[in-house]
Each structure stands twice: as structure tokens, then as C-alpha cells.
Design goal:
The complex is a heterodimer of chains A (371) and B (307). Chain A has 371 residues and is α+β, with helices and mostly antiparallel strands. Chain A has helices at residues 8-24, 34-40, 42-52, 57-66, 71-83, 131-135, 156-162, 191-199, 203-214, 283-295, 312-318, 321-329, 336-356, and strands at 100-105, 223-236, 245-262, 270-279, 367-368. In chain A, strands 1-2-3-4 form a four-stranded antiparallel beta sheet. In chain A, a hairpin with a 7-residue loop joins β3 (245-262) and β4 (270-279). In chain A, α3 crosses α4 and α9 (203-214) packs across α10. The longest helix of chain A has 21 residues, at 336-356. The radius of gyration of chain A is 27 Å and the shape is globular. The two termini of chain A are 31 Å apart. With 307 residues, chain B is an alpha/beta fold. In chain B, the strands form three sheets. In chain B, strands 1-9-8-5-4-2-3 form a seven-stranded mixed beta sheet. A three-stranded antiparallel beta sheet of chain B has the order 7-6-10. In chain B, β2, α3 and β3 form a beta-alpha-beta unit. In chain B, α1 (30-45) packs across α2. The longest helix of chain B is centred in the N-terminal third of the chain and has 16 residues, at 30-45. Chain B is globular and about 60 Å long. Classes of the chains: A alpha+beta (371), B alpha/beta (307). Chains A and B meet through α1, α5, α12, α13 and β5 of A and α3, β11, β12 and β13 of B.
């Protein structure tokens, strides 16, 4: 006799217990600590903080542990937690020219004030599996530089700006930035909404779109004007004090893309900008973001909108991996009522055709057409 | 569970977990609830119009009912009795999961009985038992925009709604008839509300569309991922789109429910063996149970095996 999909409750409970057990893995292997994740999986932590829109290394590490290393799942955990947090206010805007630099490179100038600072980078590693890490992983201490990093580390775009060669970054605008986590997005989107959307957007999605522009799908000639990574202190003015206090320090990565110039016989030509910024050390993400920010300015800069990366509604509506992952995977939910409706319709359509061709008629299982 | 369970105290099962500490009643903070209630009020005032709202990230995935959950969380009170169904059934995993979520975060009474519930959250069905004016039906909506399949740009569809420029919908239906000889849309069948806005009824089978018309209960629709809320106030005209010479029709079956014998409910088809033998049973599990009780004149204790 028919047994419906009953007993959902105990099935869910058992599944969750099994999940917990699988997450823990072999109990003879020592359990991961949050410290270990924070320190040795730091780029995973950075990605989860960036796309989770919450700067908290410990919680990000916890999310990574809980999600068994599934970073999109970890991002989801952090986002859901973020929903419950109260808002105290808005910090003073950060000034990236003043950050304590750990890495700063420019692809547009051989040398520049402050110099090129490679910092920690995969860039020039040979991608050879290092079997010594499998053995013990001991590493010698890194060599300390003789001189400290130059305090004067102006942004490349500011240097160009002195000559008027690149467009001004923004006009002074004190209006409250749009917050896509509190308001429903609108199109056309404000720049603040666009940058916020891209900053928390899925790295893979942005990467593929940025790549598509380089292959001609909305080309805009990017140069990596500057990529910088380092620490910045965050300041906040509490109402009861009325003056700024430092509430912490964060690591950020910033990318300034310098793009195809614009001008006319009357207006002197100027380079245009694309901007990327991310919590933590996220170079691939910020570079992709810089390229897409610029691509999405197509309409503003009177360029033809032809490619997906230039289409604001397409890019901004599909960048969030929490939304995308949820909706793609919701197909796992039962759909048998809708499917039953489709069965009824398809059988009725087939019956209508078969009635016209009696020779080929086949028995239709007990269904009367919808009409 | 027994058929009569109100399950406030079903011995230690997941169904009635401890109320979660450190979270607000029904999870959302009061500011958020106020924002959502404002959106709901606007939606009720403009039947069928999609009101944008600042949808939050919930601890359940987008696409799994976050819109319905946010609406329910914003309207539910301590005294409400909640019923959650998915595909018409209280027992499907997602319905169980959402019911548990409210059990955990709000501690409200839950029920499987349609007429006992004050708030019913649903995915893909409207209960067979007619609803009353004291009830609210909350739909989970994946894609709130009925014009989306014809025009994918939000900027365009909003304009079309504003100007009631709905010709394209009828052209779409006409092309469907021209191609197949009939309208082939079988679920999420578009409706026009109060002679004004064209609205997605959510992916309910078209079988359920007539129940929306002049329904005494308030109908609220929440689309979390798409950040839209819309509503059909009680006793509002809801018309499924059609043509005079191709009037709207609903699904019907030759069979009756193999469990309760009902001949006027939506039937699910169940394949029972390798030969493709089928049986048909009510999709509304509570309705089916009540029909059986009427037949046997006794409350049904065992779930599921239908004997």
C-alpha cells in the first residue's frame, strides 16, 4: 500500500546527525581548531568575510569549520548570522592612501614613489606541489627588509590625477550610501549600490565576467594601475562622544584599474577608472571587481551596452552566491504537484494528436484532458 | 503524531524543540518586522502590486521559502496557530523544517488541521478546505513577476505594470493556443487581480486558481530572494487570464483518491511498481485524512499507510 513521504522529521534529524559525524571525520585525526583555520587557511577566511559581508575572522573560521570547507555554505552561515546583528552606525570612510602597506604593485609604471612592494604573493611561485609541506611544513622565517616600507605611498591614480590624465574619482557626495542589505535594489543602480553588490558578489562569477570583457565581450582596455593590500584602522564617532575613536583594524585589498580614455575634440582625453575593494587579501576578486565596475559604467560613458558584463541588471541580479546557490538547489525540493499538472497537460496534448492519427493511438493512463 | 495533534508537546520530537535563546520572537528584529509590515500594508492597499522590500538573509536558503517565512514572522503573534504545507502536505521535509523553525524561534502552536490554523504558510498549493475570513494564507513565491518569461528586464516589467500594458501576455497565450491548440500553462497560471494588476499566483497548479477568487481569507505573497511582497485582500476578484473562445479550465482526473475516495481534490500520481502501475491520492494530506475520518467515523490514528 501507498506510503507517502512521511516521517520527514526523523529523517531530517538523522541526516543532520550524519552530517555532523561526516564533518568531524575520522575521530583518530585531531580536530581542527578555529585558530588553525584562521592562521593557516587565511585566504579562505578572507573570502568568507568579504562575501559574507562581515569582518570577523573567528566567526568566518567557525563557518568554514561548520561547513566542512564549503566556502559558499560558510558565506551563507555568516550572512544569516549578520542579519541578526544590530546596527550601531556608520564608520568614517577609510582613506586607502594611508594604509599600512604589505603589498603594493603597479603595472603601469616601472617605478614610482614608494616603490613596488611584492609582499606575500603566489605570483612568482612555480606551481609545483611542495611535498615538504606534506612531511612537516616547517618554514624558515622570512627575511626582514633593511629599510621599512616607505610611509609615503601615494596611489598611482592620484599621481595621474595631478596631471589631469585620469578622471576624478568622485564628486564630493555626503549623501547616505545605498545599502543593498537593507533596501530592495533599484535599477539603474547608484554607484554605491553597485560597488556594495560587487564587493559581496561571488568571486567566481565576477572572475568569469571580467574574463569575458578581456576576450572582447565588452572590452574596456584595463591596466592594473595599482593593487595594494594592507591594514587600516577603522574610526567611528559615537553620538555620546562626538569625536572619532578607533574601533579596530582591518585588512583590505584595493585595485584601481585604469581604462580606455575618453574625450573629444573639445574635451581633453582622460583615462577612466574601475574600482575594486575587498575585505582581507583577495586580489583575484578585487581585480575582477575593478574590471566589472568599469564595464558597468558603459551607459554612463556612452558606450554601447552589448555584452553581459556591461548589463547592470544582469550582473547585479545574479552576483550573489547565497541567492544563486539557494535557488539552484531549491530544485531539490518536491515539485510533484507542478509536475503532476505538467503530466496532465502533456498527456492531454498527446491524446489530442493521437486522436487525429488513430493508427498510432496508444493507451493513455487514466487521465482526462484538462479541457 | 496523531491526526488530532496540536503538537505543542509531542514528546521530545523535533516538532517541538526548545525555543531558541538569544533570538527575537520569530527571529526577525522589530525594525525589520515593522519594515515588512509596512510593505504588507501597501501590498494590501494595492492588490496584486509587487511591493519591493528589504528582504533579509534568513537561516534557510533563498528559494526555500524565505519570503513566506519573513511574511509569517512579521504577522505571527503568540496566540496564532500555524500550519505549514508544501505540495499540499504537512509532512514534506521542507514544511516540517519551516514549522520547526517557527517552533524554535516563536514557540507558537502548530497544527495540521486547515480549519484550526490562523496562519497557513504554503508552497505550491491552496488547501482543499475553504478558508475563512479569520485566516491568512502566506504563499512562498520563487519568481513574483508574471511578465518575466516574456520580458526579463525588471526596468521594463515595472513600466508595463504601471501602464497596465498587458497585451504581450494575451499574445503569449494566443501563440500557445495557435501552437498547441490550447493553453499549456499548467501551474503558476497568471491571474488579474481586481481588474488591474496581472499577478503570479506562485507555482500552484491552475486547479487552485479559482480558490483565490473572492477568498474570505487574506492572501499574502512573499518572495525573499526577489525582495517583493504582494497581496490579495479578502473577497477580491481574481481572474485567470483566458479568451472567450478558450475559457480557463482546470485539471480533472478520471480516478478518485485511492485513500479517501475524493473525486474533487487535486490528485498526486504515485508509481507503485516497476510496471508503471499508478495510483492517485490527494495532494492535500490533511483533507484526505479528514475525508477518511468522515468515512470511518473515527479519528485516524496511524499516519501514512492509509489503512
Amino acid at each position: 500500500m501507498y506510503v507517502a513521504v512521511k516521517g520527514g522529521e526523523s529523517a531530517i534529524r538523522n541526516s543532520q546527525q550524519l552530517l555532523a559525524e561526516e564533518r568531524r571525520g575520522d575521530r583518530n585525526v585531531e580536530e581542527l581548531t578555529l585558530d588553525q583555520i584562521q592562521n593557516q587557511m587565511s585566504l579562505a577566511v578572507d573570502r568568507v568575510m568579504a562575501e559574507g559581508s562581515l569582518y570577523d575572522k573567528e566567526l568566518a573560521a567557525l563557518a568554514i569549520k561548520q561547513s566542512r570547507g564549503d566556502l559558499v555554505e560558510a558565506i551563507f552561515l555568516l550572512r544569516a548570522y549578520r542579519t541578526t546583528l544590530p546596527r550601531f552606525g556608520t564608520t568614517i570612510p577609510i582613506e586607502t592612501a594611508n594604509m599600512s602597506i604589505r603589498r603594493r604593485i603597479s603595472a603601469t609604471f616601472k617605478d614610482l614613489p614608494g616603490g613596488q612592494v611584492l609582499g606575500p604573493s603566489f605570483d612568482y611561485t612555480h606551481r609545483l606541489l611542495d611535498f615538504s609541506l606534506a612531511a612537516n611544513g616547517d618554514v624558515p622565517d622570512a627575511v626582514e627588509a633593511e629599510d621599512a616600507v616607505d610611509q609615503n605611498m601615494p596611489r598611482v591614480t592620484d599621481l595621474l590625477n595631478n596631471e589631469g590624465l585620469i578622471e576624478e574619482e568622485t564628486t564630493e557626495d555626503d549623501s547616505e550610501p545605498f545599502d543593498i542589505t537593507r533596501q530592495s535594489p533599484k535599477f539603474p543602480a547608484e554607484r554605491t549600490a553597485r560597488l556594495q553588490n560587487l564587493a559581496r558578489g561571488d568571486e567566481g562569477f565576477l572572475l568569469a565576467l571580467a574574463y569575458s570583457t578581456q576576450r572582447g565581450w565588452g572590452r574596456n582596455h584595463p591596466f592594473a594601475g595599482e593593487i595594494r593590500m594592507g591594514e587600516l584602522s577603522i574610526e567611528f564617532i559615537p553620538d555620546e562622544l562626538g569625536f572619532p575613536i578607533e574601533i579596530g583594524e582591518i585588512t583590505i585589498t584595493e585595485c584601481q584599474m585604469i581604462n580606455q580614455f575618453k574625450g573629444s575634440s573639445e574635451i581633453p582625453a582622460q583615462f577612466t577608472r574601475g574600482y575594486g575593494l575587498s575585505f582581507g587579501h583577495n586580489e583575484r576578486k578585487t581585480m575582477a571587481m575593478g574590471i566589472i565596475d568599469r564595464a558597468l559604467r558603459a551607459r554612463e560613458l556612452d558606450e554601447q551596452v552589448q555584452a553581459p558584463a556591461q548589463d547592470e541588471e544582469f550582473v547585479l541580479s545574479h552576483s550573489c552566491n547565497v541567492e544563486a546557490s539557494g535557488f539552484v538547489q531549491h530544485l531539490k525540493l518536491p515539485h510533484y504537484v507542478d509536475f503532476q499538472s505538467e503530466l496532465v497537460t502533456v498527456r492531454a496534448l498527446r491524446e489530442a494528436v493521437n486522436t487525429d492519427k488513430p493508427d498510432e493511438a496508444e493507451p493513455i493512463p487514466g487521465i482526462v484532458a484538462a479541457e | 503524531m496523531t491526526a488530532s495533534s496540536q503538537n505543542k508537546n509531542t514528546n521530545g520530537s523535533l516538532e517541538n524543540p526548545e525555543i531558541l535563546e538569544g533570538y527575537n520572537f520569530a527571529y526577525l528584529d522589530d525594525q525589520t518586522k515593522r519594515m515588512i509590515r509596512r510593505a504588507i500594508l501597501k501590498a494590501v492597499a494595492i492588490p496584486g502590486y509587487q511591493v519591493p522590500f528589504g528582504s533579509r538573509e534568513m537561516p534557510l536558503p533563498f528559494g526555500w521559502g524565505t519570503g513566506g517565512i519573513q511574511v509569517t514572522a512579521s504577522i505571527i503573534g503568540q496566540d496564532d496557530i500555524l500550519k505549514v504545507i508544501d505540495q499540499g502536505s504537512d509532512d514534506t521535509t521542507n514544511a516540517v523544517n519551516i514549522r520547526n523553525f517557527f517552533g524554535k524561534t516563536a514557540g507558537v502552536d502548530t497544527t495540521e488541521k486547515t480549519n484550526k490554523a490562523t496562519v497557513i504558510q504554503t508552497r505550491h498549493r491552496i488547501p482543499e478546505t475553504p478558508l475563512s475570513k479569520d485566516q491568512i494564507l502566506v504563499y512562498q513565491v520563487p519568481i513574483p513577476e508574471p511578465l518575466r518569461w516574456l520580458e526579463h528586464r525588471e526596468t521594463e516589467t515595472r513600466k508595463m505594470h504601471a501602464l497596465a500594458e498587458y497585451g504581450v501576455m494575451h499574445v503569449g497565450l494566443y501563440e500557445n493556443i495557435a501552437h498547441y491548440g490550447r493553453v499549456t500553462t499548467s501551474y503558476d497560471y497568471p491571474v488579474q487581480v481586481d481588474d488591474r494588476y496581472i499577478m503570479s499566483p506562485s507555482p500552484i497548479p491552475k486547479f487552485d486558481n479559482p480558490k483565490m477568487d473572492k477568498m474570505p481569507a487574506l492572501q499574502l505573497f512573499g518572495a525573499g530572494r526577489e525582495k517583493r511582497i504582494y497581496a490579495v485582500p479578502p473577497f477580491t476578484k481574481v481572474k485567470s487570464l483566458d479568451f472567450d473562445d478558450h475559457p480557463f479550465t482546470i485539471e480533472s482526473w478520471e480516478e478518485s483518491c485511492a485513500l479517501c475516495g475524493s473525486s474533487n481534490s487535486f490528485l498526486d500520481e504515485v508509481i507503485t511498481d516497476d510496471e508503471g502501475t499508478r495510483m492517485f491520492v490527494c495532494s492535500d494530506s490533511n483533507y484526505c485524512k479528514e475525508q477518511i475520518e468522515k468515512l470511518t467515523n473515527a479519528p485516524l490514528v496511524q499516519n501514512g499507510d492509509g489503512s
